[in-house]
Amino acid sequence: MIGLQLWRAMPMVRRPAYGLLLLFAWFAMFSVTGNSNAEGLPPLKIVAFGTSLTARGGWQPSLETELAACLQRPVKVESVAKSGETTLWALTQLDRVVAGQPDIVLIELYANDAALQRFVSLAQSRKNIGDILDRLRQRLPRARIIVMAMNPFSGMRGLIRPFVGSYIAAHQAEAEERGLEFVDHQPNWQRLTPGDLASAIPDGAHPLPEIASKIIVPELVKQIAGGNCKE
């Protein structure tokens, strides 16, 4: 209002220069306000909880970068993961997951349960993941818990997991029964040609990190941000 009064009282010859000054001041104020909304936000803390598909995944740094760019706030991804382990091991690691008080927990724990030599029955795997989800919900009541299905297996790694689809379905069902989120990355992997898929997962189980980042991260950013990217 004061600016308008000064504008009306000002001689006509001075109005254009004063108008430019007001415009500049307005843009400067908008810029400071916009920056202040992004500055000072605490990091979004994510724990990736799983098997070698997480421990050796290599997609976590890309998730930090792309999600931070999307949300315009810092993102920190930590991993609680170990190659060759099952949900039985995961049940002993909940203190580590909870310790960082994450905002989001990403979980993939079916792959080794499904391996024949691990001797984890489908019923036991389903009970274990249910217990894991219940304990995490109790101890991290504000955290988003996202259960994931990862990449397909092939070769010998696939042969020792003949019922992996049933294990995925069981973990998905336990998540959905609790109203939790589930992300299936498999369809995105299956869009690759057979040759490209074989090149991307040369040992039949563990994707090359750079390919995993391209397949997994966009889906997670979409799931977590919900289309609210600020880019």
Automatic annotation (TrEMBL):
Source domain of life: Bacteria
GO molecular function: phosphatidylcholine lysophospholipase activity
Pfam families associated with the record: Lipase_GDSL
SUPFAM superfamilies in the cross-refs: SGNH hydrolase
The protein's name: Acyl-CoA thioesterase
Organism: Rhizobium chutanense
